Amino acid sequence: MKIRYWLLSGLIVAGVALGYVINNKVLLLHPTLAPANISGLVATDKVKILRTPDQTLFAIYGQAQDVPRLAYDTKSKVIRKPFDIVISVSTDNGDTWGTPLNISNTAALTSALGILEGSGAPVLGADGHPDLAADPRSTQYPGDSDKANVFNVGNNIIVTWGGTYCPGGNQRFVVYPELNGIAIPYSCMYVSRLRWNSTTHQFDSVWPGGLPYLTERLSNGLRDVKQDANRGNSTAFVINWQEDPMGLKLGDADGPGDGASGANVNNGTDIWYATLPTAAFATSSWATPVRITINTRTTVPLSSTGDMATHPPGDYDRGNVGASRSNIGQIGTNVVIAYEETKGTQGFIEGKYIRYHTFVWNLPPAGGEAGCIISEPTENARRVRFLTQEATNPVPLVFIYKQGEYPQGGPSDIFLRRTTANQITPASLDPPIDVADCRSSINTGGNPLIDIVQPRAINFSGSDALKGGTGTAPGALSGENPIENALAHRGVMRGGTIIVGYSYTPDLFRFQYLDDTDPYNFWIRRSTDGGVTWGAPVNMTPEITGPSQLTVKEPRIVGTPPTVAGGLPGNTQDPNVIYVGYGLQTNVREPLEVPEDVDIYMMVSLDEGLSWTPAKALSAGDVQGGYQDDLEDFETQVKVRPDGLEAHVVWSSNDGNVSSALYRRIDVVDAPLDPIFADGFED
User: Fold this and answer.
1) How confident is the model at residue 223 (pLDDT cuts 50, 70, 90)?
2) Which residue, of 55, 169, 188, 231, is most buried by count of CB atoms within 10 Å of its CB?
3) 456-472 as b/e, with b when 16 or more CB fall inside 10 Å?
4) How many Cβ atoms from other residues are within 10 Å of residue 386's Cβ?
5) Does a cis peptide bond (omega within 30 degrees of 0) precede residue 431?
6) Region 154-167: what's the mean pLDDT?
7) More confidently predicted of 13 and 590
8) With 0-12 CB in 10 A as exposed, 13-18 as middle and 19+ as buried, what is 480?
C-alpha cells in the first residue's frame, strides 16, 4: 500500500500532551488494542448498526456467499461472489457478536440471465434486441443484494435493499457498451422485518413458517431499483426508492468516481413510496407502492437502435426528466421526501433541481406530482439532505444541498433553507421561494427556468472572492468564486441548536491536479437561534490534514437519540453531546491515481459544539499518533447512547484482499488524575 504522508514531531507530542481530554473527560476505546472484526474472513459490504432500548446492538451488512454463480460489481468493475444481507447481534454491549443471520437468502437463486465477460456486443435476435439465451457467454445471474439500509422503532426493525432476484417473468436487463457488453439484470425492492425480544434476547419467530424475520419483495424488476431510504416513528414505517425504466446507468465522472451510484439516470425515472403502520408491525402488510413523482409521461416500445441493442423488447416508461437520490423524513404524521431531478432540456441546459414533497404519511399524492423546487433554477443542485424534528419546534425542517454552475463534478457550495412557524410546507420556507410556481415542470407544460424567479437560499459555505474564506458570502451564487468546492454536508438539530458541517477546499483544481496543498477539511457552523444567525466556520481537522496532506472523506455528525423508557443506565437523553467522525484519504492527482483510504477518527463535544476533544483514531492505524497499518478504513456508521457517554461505531476495512466489518465502542469517562500534577504543582 502506498501511504503518502509525513508527520511533524510536534504534532505527536501535542496529541499525547492533550490526552484527548475535554471537561475532565477522556475517550476510551473497546476493544483496547484493536477493533473487533464482526464478519471474520468473509467479504462484506456496507456495514450498518442499530441499537434497541435494551442496549442490544445489531450489525447489518452484505456478506459474500460461496455459491456456484458470480455477480458483476458495477462500481469497482470486477467479478465477485454475490452478497446476501445478514444481521449479527451483540447482547453484551459489543464484547461479542453472534453468528450472522441471513435475511435475504437469494445469492444461491437466479431469475435471469446475465453476461459477465466483457468481450463485445451481445448476440442480437431477429428483432434487433439482445438475445441472451442465444449468447454463448450468458450465465444464470445470482440474486445479488445491494447495500442495506436500516431503521428501528423500539424493538421493531426494518432492513431495505435492492436485489437482482426478481422471479415472476417481468425482470429486464441492461447491456453496457461502456463495459464491452456486460449484461446485468434489473434489481427489485426488498424489505425485511424483524422484532427483537428483550426478555428472550432473540428475534421473535412470529412470521410465516416460524422464521425470525419476514422478507418481502415490493417491486418486480420491470424497472431498475436503486437508492432506497427508510424511516419510522410511532405512527408508521416509510420507504422510498427510485426506479429507472432503462436500467441503472454508469456515472459520467472522471477518475475513481465513475461507478453506478444511481445519480445518473434515464428520463422517466420516478421516486416510489411504501408504508407500514407501526401499530400493526407484525400483522399488517406493506401498502401497495405508489409513484410520488410524475416523470413518466407515457409507455412506449423501444425505437432507437442503441436502446434496442441494449435492452429486451417491450414497452418502457418514457418522460423528459428523471429523479434520483431521494431522502425521506418524518415529522409527526407527515412525511418529507426530497430528491434531485434532471432539468429535461435535452442537452441544452444541463444540471438538476432540488425538489421536495410533504404529505400525511398514508395520503401520498394520488398519481404523483411535481415536487416544489427549492434550489436556484439556473444552477445545478444535487445531494439534498435535511434535518427534522417535531413540529412543536419553531424550525422543524432544514434543507442542505450542493449547488454550482457546473453540470457535474465542478466547484459548488452548500446551500441552506429552513422552515419556520412550526410548519413544513413550501410557504413556510426561509429564505422564501416562489410558492406559486415552485411546482413548475416540463412534464406539466411549464419551464422552471422561465417560470420561477427564486429568491436565493443561504450560501452556507461559499465566498465571493478567491481565497476569501469559507462561509463569508451568504448571499452569493456559487459562480462568484469559481474555484472553491464544498461537499459531504451533514448536520444535527436539537431545538434551537443546529450544527451543519461540510468538507471544503479553497481550490478544487489545485487539489485534484497539483497534489500538494488545499486538501478537504471538515468545517462546522453553529446556530443557537434556530438558524436565524450562524457562527463563523470552524475547521475541525487542521491538525491532521495540514501536516499529513491527507484529505477528509465521509464525515459524520451524530447527536443523541431521545430518552428511552425503562430505567436502564444511560437511556436519558443529553442533547448537549455531539459526535463528529470522519475518514482520511490520500490526496492524489486525478484521474491518474486512485486515492487510498487511511484511518477513521472521532471527536466529541459535551457542550453543543462549543468545544471538542482532539481527534482520536478508531482504526488500528493512527496517522496523528505516528503509525499506520495496511488497512483501508472507510464508510463509518455511528449509534450513540441517549446520554452520549457511549457510542458504537462500525466501518468497512479492506486489507487488499477482502473487505471486513469492524467495530469499536467509545466510552466517555473521567480522566485519570495525572500524578505529576496531583497536588496542583509539578513535582
Assistant:
1) very high
2) 188
3) ebbbbbbbeeeebebbb
4) 24
5) yes
6) 98
7) 590
8) middle
What residues contact residue 122 under an 8 Å CB cut-off, 6+ apart? Answer: 115, 130, 131, 132, 135, 137, 175, 181, 183, 309
Cβ pair 647, 93 in contact under 8 A: no
Alpha carbon distance 270, 290 (integer Å): 10
Q: What residues contact 17, with CB distance under 8 A and at least 6 apart?
A: none
| CA-closest candidate to residue 309, choices 176, 140, 172, 141 | 176
| Assigned C-alpha cell, 258 | 465513475
Q: 604-658, pLDDT tens digit by residue?
A: 999 999 999 888 899 988 887 777 788 899 999 999 999 999 999 999 999 888 9
What is the average per-residue pLDDT within 12-41?
Answer: 72
Is the per-residue pLDDT at 344 higher than 90?
no
How do the residues of the chain divide into helix, strand and coil, expressed in percent and rounded to 5? 10, 40, 50
The SS3 assignment for 609 reads coil
pLDDT one-digit tens code per residue, 611-622? 998 888 999 888
Q: Has residue 6 got a pLDDT over 70?
A: no
DSSP string, 541-587: -HHHHHHH-EEEEEEEEEEPPPP-TT--TT-S--TT-EEEEEEEEE-
Task: Give phi and psi for 380, each to the nearest 5.
Answer: -105, 115
Instruction: Choose among 437, 539, 522, 441: nearest CA to 487.
Output: 522
Taking the C-alpha atoms of residue 477 and residue 376, their distance in angstroms, rounded to an integer, is 9
**CB contact at 8 A, 587 and 6:** no
CB 596 within 8 A of CB 1: yes
β-strand 413-419 against 397-404: which pairing, if any? antiparallel
| Residue 428 backbone dihedrals phi, psi, to 5 degrees | -100, 5
